[in-house]
Amino acid sequence: MAAGDVKRARDVEMIYDQIVIERIEVRAVGPDVDRYSWASDLDQQYGTLTVVRMYDDQGFEGVGATPSYSTGRFDLAILETLRHLAPRVLGADPLEREAVWYGLQDLALEVLMGAQSALDIALWDIVAQRAGVPLHQLLGGSRRRLPAYASTPLLADAGAYVVFVGELLERGFRAVKFHAWCEADRDLEMLRKVHDAHGGTGIRMMHDAEQRYDRVSALRVARELDAMGFAWLEAPLPDQDVEGYAELRRRTGVPIIAAGNTILDLQSVSTALRLHPWDALRTDATVAGGITPCRKLIALAEGAGLWTELQSWGYTLIQAANLHLGMGVAGTGMFEFPVPSEPHEYGVRNPYAITADGHVEAPTAPGLGIDVDWERMSAAELASFTCER
Question: Using CA atoms, how far apart are residues 325 and 295, in angstroms rounded to an integer?
Fold first, then answer.
C-alpha cells in the first residue's frame, strides 16, 4: 500500500473511532391541545410524545420520538422504559445501528418497543445529518413525494363527515380514511352518505374499524365497501385474529389490512403471513422498534407480494420517521395525514403541508429535517432525565 493510501486509511480509522454517543436527553411531552377519539366506546385520547435527543462527540444531535395514547391522563411508561434502555446507547457508534438495535433487545423480559424506536430513529437522524443528506436519501431515495390521505377523527354524525370531506377536497386531499363509531350499522350509514355525496369526485376512501367488529359484521361491512370501491378496510378484527383475517380475505374483494399495533416483530409477522391474512402490511417505525427493523418488515412484505402502509397518525415527529421511511424504501403506499392537523403540529416550526394535488413533498434538510421548538416542548414537559458517558 502506498504511503498516501496508508495515511488516508489511518485518517478514516481515526474519524471512525471518534464517533460515539455522549449524551441522551429524554422527555415526555403532553401538550394541552384538542383531543379526539376513534370510536364510540373510546374517550378522547391523551397523546403523549416521548422524545429522545441524542448527542455525539462531534457536535451532531439526533432526534427520535414515539407516541402513546391513553384515556384520562398522559402516559409515562415509555419514558420509564428508556431509563434503563438509553444508557445502553452511550458510547455506541451511530454508524453501527444494527449492533445497537440488537443490543436493545431484552429477550428475557418484555420491553416497550416504542422506547427502542425513539433511540433507533435518533441514531438514523444523526447519521443522515453527518452525511449532509435527508434521511430518505440515506434510506434509498425511492421517491420524492408521496400521495397523502386525510385520517379523520370521530365526528358528530354522518352529515358532519359529508361536510368535512368536502373541505378536505378543497384543501387538495385526494384520499380520506374514516375513523367513526366502529358500530357496523352506524358506520355503514355514514359511509354510504359520504360515498353518495363525494364518490364521483375521484377521491379514494378507506375505513378504519379500530379492531372492533366481530367476524359477521366485518364481512358485511367489507362486502358493502367492496361494492362502493373502497381502497381498503382497516382493522375490522383484532390483530391477533389472523385466521379471521384470512377468512375475511377469502370471502370479499375489498383489500384488507390490520391495525398494525400488535403483530410487530419480524418473526411474528413472518408467521402470520403464512396464512395470507392481509393485502398489505401495516406498521409504524415509531412503535415497531425503529427504522432498522421496519426496513426488514417492508422487505418481508415485498417478498410475499404485499405493499406496506405506514401508520403516521400523531405529532409531526411521529409523522417524520414514517415519511422518510416511505420515501426512502420502495414497496410503501400512501402517507397518513391526521386531520384536523393543528393539534398534531405542536412543538415544531415546519409541519408538513399538502400540495394542491394531494401529495407530501420530500424534505430537503439533512436528517429528519424537523425544526423542533424546544421551548414549547419544555413548556409541555411531564417528566425528563438525562444520561451521559
Answer: 8
